[in-house]
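Researcher: Go.
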Amino acid sequence: MYRKILYLLMLIITSNLYSQNDTIQGEAEYLKHYDCKYRPGNILIIQKKGKTISDYTPSKPTNAGFIIRMEAIYDLEFADNKRYKSSVVKNITNDSITISSTFNEKCAEYEGIKYELITYPIQSIKIARFINDRSLGFFSKKKIDSDYDLIVKKVDKAKMCPAVLTFPKRNNEVKVCHYYLTSQGYDILFETNGFLDYMEYNVDWR
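Model: Structure:
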């Protein structure tokens, strides 16, 4: 079962990096800042050939593979050789995946690209990358098109909804913080003037 957003906020307080003074109370308040609900929908299981993934809880990549969920971020390259390092997965159907061109519109402006939603056939996912060392930019790479089976499964809670956090040290700015899968697990990404940055610790969802 997913940990509640309140528990995530407690992690932030104890980290001494940021404090939360504006806890989001309930779904109605959350939806004022971001439209995401935990409803039934599809997840995409990236499963190593000959292996089996039975736990669909978000976690770090394993030898058996990993799970792609809507509203989280994955570093994916497709059959047309286009790589999307910080795109948000917006929709998963039985045969397609829709992603944003980058994190949000401010990031698109910063990167000099158009913010748009792009749909690919699921089978066109070619490579997934997972950052190992943020400071040095080291990545591990999985060749999806040759070594993995891609399985769409409907689950009760399909999305990995972002946290909506208030940053007191930035004039109480409210930020939508998406989760980004690394080799160590999920990190939190947030945007400032088009530039993406990480919370400096991992987030473990159970």
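Model: Residues 19-198 form one domain.
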